[in-house]
Amino acid sequence: MSFTESVDQIVQENSSGLLAAHASWARTRVSEVATILNGFPFPSARFRGDSGTPLVRIRDVQSYRSETFFDGEFDAAYLIERGDLLIGMDGDFPSALWKGEKALLNQRVCRVTPDERFYSRRLLAAVLPGYLASINQRTSSITVKHLSSYTVAEIPLPLPPRKEQDRLADALDSYLSRLDDAVASLERVQRNLKRYRAAVLQAAVEGRLVPTEAELARAEGRSFEPASELLARILAERRRRWEEAELARLHAKGKEPQNDAWKAKYVEVVCPDAAVVPELPEGWTWTTLGQPFEVVVGATPSRRKPDYWGGSIPWVSSGEVAFCRIKQTRETITQAGLENASTKLNPRGTVLLGMIGEGRTRGQCAILDIDACNNQNAAAIRVSDSGLPPEFTYYFLMSRYDQTRSIASGGNQPALNKSRVESIPLPLPPIAEQHRIVEEVERRLSVADDAEHSLTTQLTRCHRLRQSILKWAFEGKLVDQDPSDEPASVLLDRIRAERSAASTPSLGPQTRRPRSRGARAKQG
Questions:
Q1: How much is the pTM?
Q2: Averaged over 89-118, what is the pLDDT?
Q3: Do 142 and 276 share a structural domain?
Q4: How many CA atoms lie within 13 A of 370 on its CB side?
Q5: Which range among 60-64, 139-143, 259-263, 394-398 has the greatest average pLDDT?
Q6: What residue numbers bound the domain in which 151 lies?
Q7: Who contacts 248 (Cβ-Cβ below 8 Å, separation ≥6)?
C-alpha cells in the first residue's frame, strides 16, 4: 500500500481506532493547523564530532542529543529549540518534542510548528506517533520507508475545542509522565540485569563464583587433581587417538611405518605465554581452545545439487549460532551432501563459535544438543570429546564476546579463522570445579532470565496502558467536556476562514536554501 493510500485509509477511519475523535469534536489536517519545515542538506564535509553547532539527524530525534556537529554558516531558520516538534522522515518515523539544546535541523528530519491558537503543541505531539505508526504499518517497502512533508501535511487530526485541548494535554502529561517514569525504571533494571549477567560470567571464569577445588580439598583434608594434570591427561589422550587414526589411514593405503618418524606430523598447539595472561586461582591452568579440543571449520554442500539437501543430517548455519543450545536446525543435508563437502558431523556437546560477520554473529556461540554439521562461517570446538562439560567453555566464550570479535581480521567483513580460534586463551579449572561453576552460573542466570521475563511482561503492559490512555483521550473520555467551550466546529470554521484569507500558505518551505550572507548566522 502506498503512502497516499495509507493516509486516505486513515482519513476514512474517522470514528474508529486508537485516535478516533469524540462525536462532538471536529476533524482537521496537519496542514490546516501547523507549518512544516524540512531539514536542510548541510554538507557532510563540514560535519565534526566535537565542535560546532549540534546537528539533529533521524537517530537523534528521540535521544535528544546529537553526536554530530556542523562548523559552517547556516540559515537561522533551521535552528531548532527545546520544545520544537520533530519527525524523522525515514525508517520508523520517530517523533518527539525536542528536549536537547539549540541545534540545526538536518535533512530527512522535519519540524512541525502548530499555530497554538488552534492546536496545542503538546497535544499534537501525543497525536502524531499513532498516525505515523499506522502509516508505517500500512506501507509496504522492501528497503527503507520514506515520508514526505506532503504526507505529513495530509495527516488527519481529531480537533477538540481549544480549551479542552489544554485540559487533555495536562491530563496526558500527568498520566504519561508517570508511565514514562515507570518504563524508565523497568529499563534501568533491564540494564542492571545485563550487567549482572556479565558480572556472573566474569566471576565464573576468574574462579570467584564458587569455592575452588583447592580450597575445598584443604578444608576436607583430601587431595585433588589440578587442572595441569587434567590437561596433560587430555593431551595424551588426544595424541593417542590421532596416532590410532593416522596408523589406520596408513594401513588403508598399504603403507607400513618402518619407524616412528610419522608421529612427527602431529601438531601441538602452543600454550599461552604465562607472561601475558593473568594469574589464575590455585589448581587452575592456562591453555588454549586448540590444545584440549579439536577445532573444525564446517562447509556448505553445493546448492546446485538438490540431492545434497533435505536429508536427515542437521546442518547449522552461522545465523543459528546465537548464545543458545541448538536442538534442531533450519536445514538438513543428506549423506551424499556430507560425503561431498568438507563439513563434518560434530557430536553433541560441541561448542560452535561464529567467525564471520560485522553484525552480532561473529563471536556468538552455541552448544549442540544434537549431532550436527555446520557451515564454513562457524568453528566447531569439540569439547565433549575431551570429557569436559561443554557449558564451561560456552560460558567462557560468552563472557569474552567483545574480545573475541576484536581479534578478527579483514577489511569490509572482519572474520576469525581456525588458527585464531585455536589460539584463544582458556582458563582451565579442575573438572569437579568446572561442574560446580556451571551449576552456579545456570542457577544465577535462570533467576536473571525469570526477572527479565517479568520485566518484559511489565513493559508490554506499560505499552498497552499507554495505548489505552491515548485511546481514552481521543475518544473524549479522559477529561470532562465543558459546555461553555467554543465548539470544535466553530474553531474549525475560524481556522479555515483565516487560512483562506491568509496571503501565505501554511505549509512551510520544503527545501529552504540559505538566504544571503547577511541573513545567515555563524556557529558560535
A1: 0.78
A2: 94
A3: no
A4: 14
A5: 394-398
A6: 3-161+486-522
A7: none
